[in-house]
Amino acid sequence: MRNNYILKNGTILTMNENHEIFENYDILIQNNKIIKIAQEIVKEGSEIFDCSGLVIMPGLINTHTHVAMSYMKGLADDLDLHTWLTEHIWPVEQKMLDFEFVYNSSKHGVCEMIQNGITCFNDMYFYENATAKACNEIGIRAILGEGVVDFPMALHTGADSVLSFIRELHDEYKDCDLIDIAVAPHAVYTVGKESWKKSLALAKELDLLLHFHLSETEKENADFYEKNKISPTEMLNEIELLNHKSVAAHGVFLSDKDLAILGRSKTSIAVCTDSNLKLASGFAPINNYEKSGINWSIATDGVSSNNNLDLLEEASTTAKLHKALNHDPKFLDAEKMLRHCTIQAAKALHLDHEIGSIEVGKLADMIFIDLNQIQTQPLYNYYSQILYAMNSQQIKHVIINGKWIMRDKKFETVDENEVLKIANRYRKRLQ
Ligand SMILES: [Zn+2]
Fold first, then answer.
1. Percent above pLDDT 90 for the chain
2. Which one in 135, 206, 313, 345 has a CA-CA gap of 20 to 30 Å to 113?
3. For 314-345, what is each residue's pLDDT tens digit?
4. 397 CA distance to ligand 1 centroid (A)?
5. In what helix (H) or strand (E) does residue 246 lie, and over which residues does it extend?
6. How many CA atoms lie within 13 A of 424 on its CB side?
7. CA 269 to CA 297: how far, in whole Å?
8. How would you write 394-409 as a 3-class SS string?
9. Rg, C-alpha atoms of the chain
10. CA 229, CA 227: separation in Å to the nearest integer?
11. Residue 201 in 3-state DSSP?
12. 187 CA distance to ligand 1 middle (Å)
């Protein structure tokens, strides 16, 4: 048996359907699974970890990222989307993008996510084979979608070459515990209808998640409408893509008809508030998602438009922004927001049978928080302190797939100093 241990005397925020919190409970973990949750578990041969004073919750799930852009964080800020992309990001990508860059930059981003309590993320970028290597080495769970675009990019000559690359990646990782492969058509302004259809066909054939950007800016929607006389959502609905399991990032500009379509679909929306705020794109209509029955989750987007990978900060900002926008302080309470970073996010990825809550039979992905600090005391309500008061520095340990990835704030599977050294080397080349 690889793992066999008991987490003793923790406070467990389960995020289960009954919203249960267990104080002074134990969790028995064997291999990568949660076997038992009870008081005073005794099991011979199990290692014991004292968790008194710690809150244990499911690992956070980041449903939309471009993790390999970590080295582009802070390279250019305070610009409009077009200038930022064409004058800063794309030239760097053209010059720098290769396996080594993506591998190292992904490693950097994965370390930041782990420090922020993220144990699973849904990524879209290029050279996802390099990101897969980084994730596997560190031990984080990830759904990796090679970006489908209709023009030559990175390793590929166009959509067909990306799709065959995804097929190969899927083959390589189909037995891997940590890595799932997705099909990631970038957006309606970079992918034509035929390539959307081919992406859907591949996702259906291999039973993979689809991951794409949808209606992030007003301009992209207006341009699409002018050319096609229907909205991006209507086009994707027409080719029956939205009835396949998928995550749409942003979903800021959606008509009533779009909302109704998405409400009936198998598509979830990944809300990226900080990125939308920083690029002044607009506000995701979360109130309307709720009314239309659309599942939604919280995401950071790429770190170069955020500029961090802190999902709790993202959730806190989202809650406060939407209270203000809706003139309703009761909208999006603290517990609900944490559910949209855990179990609802797992639902978005169609992985809620395995992750997103602390329940017997699920995979052991969890984080340990020390709330016994000035910032989060006195403690009246766990959810409230975690969402509104806590600093991510209070995340002490992280377990993914039953394995200790961070213990006492130190990485167990990666050398932090080496990661920083390599980042500095790349800084000199990017400047
Ligand atoms: Zn994005």
1. 92
2. 206
3. 999 999 999 999 999 999 999 999 999 999 99
4. 28
5. strand 246-250
6. 6
7. 6
8. HEEEEEECCEEEEECC
9. 21
10. 6
11. helix
12. 10
